[in-house]
Amino acid sequence: MGRSLSILLLVIGIGFFVFGSYVAYQVRRDENKIWQAEGYEQGYERPILGPVRRAARNSAEQSAHERIGQAKQNVARSQVTANWLRGVGIVVFAIGAAGLIPYYKKRR
């Protein structure tokens, strides 16, 4: 493996890891938003005055539950992607570093 290829792999590995960390940050931010939405939804208890309001509220709650469920699925997929990117970044970085070892041994 050439020296330039090893350096390129090092840079690509760092790029994968940094992007995976960014995705993980976004996932944590989205998880926080979901947690806040669930807390708001649970704390929202107002008296129901009539059947029309009851139906509208049940419809809104069902819609909110569906959106929260979809958001949780998206967060789970994004977390898997973030972990995969970080793992691949570490492996590619290690391969690039291993490719540079012979060049440092020749100099000594």
**Shape label:** rod-shaped
Secondary structure: helix percent: over 70%
The total strand number stands at 0
- Helical element count? 2
Q: Calculate Rg over CA atoms.
A: 24 Å
Quaternary structure of the protein: single chain
- State the separation between the terminal residues, measured CA to CA: 20 Å
Poorly predicted runs are none
SSE order, as H and E?
Answer: HH
Structural class: mainly alpha
**Fraction in beta strands:** under 5%
Secondary structure blueprint with pairings:
Blueprint: H1 3-43, H2 51-107
Helix pairs in contact: 1-2
Structure explained in plain terms:
By secondary structure, this protein is an all-alpha fold. 91% of the residues lie in helices and 0% in strands. It has helices at residues 3-43, 51-107. It is rod-shaped and about 85 Å long.
Using brief descriptors, characterize the structure shown.
single chain; 108 residues; 91% helix; 0% strand
In short:
The protein has 108 residues and is mostly helical. The chain contains two helices and no strands. α1 (3-43) packs antiparallel against α2 (51-107).
